[in-house]
Write a structure and sequence with these properties.
By secondary structure, this protein is α+β, with helices and mostly antiparallel strands. 39% of the residues lie in helices and 20% in strands. The longest helix has 68 residues. The structure holds adenosine-5'-diphosphate. The site of adenosine-5'-diphosphate (ADP) has 17 residues, from helix 4, helix 8 and helix 10.
Length: 532
Amino acid sequence: MPEPAELARQLAAANELLAARGRALDLAERRLADARTDARGLARTNEKLNATLGTARDSLVALRAELDALATPPSSFGLVLAVGEGTADIATGGRQLRCAVSPEVAAEELLIGARVLLNEAMLVVATAGDTPSGETVRLVEVLPDGRLLASGASGEELVLLAADTLDVASLRLGATLLADRRALLALGPVPRSEVADLTLEEVPDVTYADIGGLGAQIEQIRDAVELPFLNRELFTEFGLRPPKGVLLYGPPGCGKTMIAKAVANSAGSHFLNIKGPELLDKYVGETERQIRAIFTRAKEHASSGRPVIVFFDEMDALFRTRGSGVSSDVEATIVPQLLSEIDGVEGLANVIVIGATNREDLIDPAILRPGRLDVKIKLDRPDQAGAAEILARYLTTRTPLNNGDVAPADFQAQLVEAIVGRLYARTPENEFIEVTYASGAKEVLHVADFVSGAMLVGVVDRAKKAAIKELIGGGPRGVRLEHVLSACAAEIGENEELPNTTNPDDWARVSGRKGERIVFLRTLFGSRALAT
Ligand code: ADP
């Protein structure tokens, strides 16, 4: 048995050993934990390194691509002039080359005029879409072999090859084309709002015989336009300068357009019908361009020996007195443009300008000076005799009439008389409006004061329609008195020529009475409620 002291010592030693093991264990655990933490840290670092490496690799790739791009020789653009077997004739950089075509290029895309890409070996490697820009030329003639004779900006003539995509058959002489001058290729039409849109009539089919009344005005305009045109030598001999233009003015629907068309018909001339408000474009300079284009067009046609009438309808919309501020300041440039065009018509006896307006008071006086639109012709509303003449143009003995025992000619005359009587009667029934002038004087205006050719045509059309409806409904055939009378009533009630505006100035214009200002209006007819 060991000594107790020995025992105690051994126990102490054992305890110490145990404690030492515990400490060693603790240490080992701590080390393990540290090692784990370290391992996690390392893993993170590793990830970071990987990511950095990845980014570095990407930038390297991008750099290489950039370097490659920098090192790639440029491709040239070229235009196809002709296509052969595996080759194409290409215009590029002012030269013409016969180039091989890469098999990757589809044959159907290789059209004359197509834009292609050429590599450094001048191999056609791709097509490159339309040619977006170029010079414009004007088509003068399509040659029998399909090539185009065109004129450049300074009038020089060029013979151009037409691109396959250019529909030559649809081209109008004088059309604007996009061209590559160096390749001598016409590539396509330049879409512009052309004068063509402003309606060119070959020779209008209205004749003087279609116009009712207005005999004096017809004579005036014939003297002004036809006489000098048909007797040019005499005019030169007598030292008389033919007028360049005529201004027709008067209320709407009273035959201004008809007369202008009849002049054109009688002279066998082209008729360019320009509607003033349509020409007024919101883009700066566009109206001026159109005016230039109109006269270029007129001159082109005139050079063929046929006269051309340039008809400006509603001229007041375009050529208002400068500085009137009515249509902002467009007048400031449009009026001079027209003046210079009219002045330029000098050498072209074949171009005649006819303007029409119902506001001649608004038109810039410079346009009406001698040497310009110096012949002014007034077209009034038809009087009773004039109205009868107009009606007789539309209601003839050939019109199906329900004339009973009466001879057709007599019946037709009766109908005309009935319409005139109904519209022109100064009866209370026909009172239309009461105007009060600045002086305080009052005047009652009747339907008669507003009759226009257009209104008369409206009456006849209504009567005819009523007769047709009656016939379809199983009734008798032909126009009767009741038809024309109810047509008159309907036309008076609904006629759009009758102003339904409250602006006294408009009334002064429509009624054709000038001088005194109207300050107040009172309708006497129907349900129109007008007041100022
Ligand atoms: P505007 O004076 O406004 O130019 P238009 O000449 O266009 O008038 O006339 C409008 C329509 O009215 C014509 O198409 C025609 O049917 C008819 N008209 C007007 N005046 C006459 C007339 N004197 N003779 C025959 N028809 C006329």
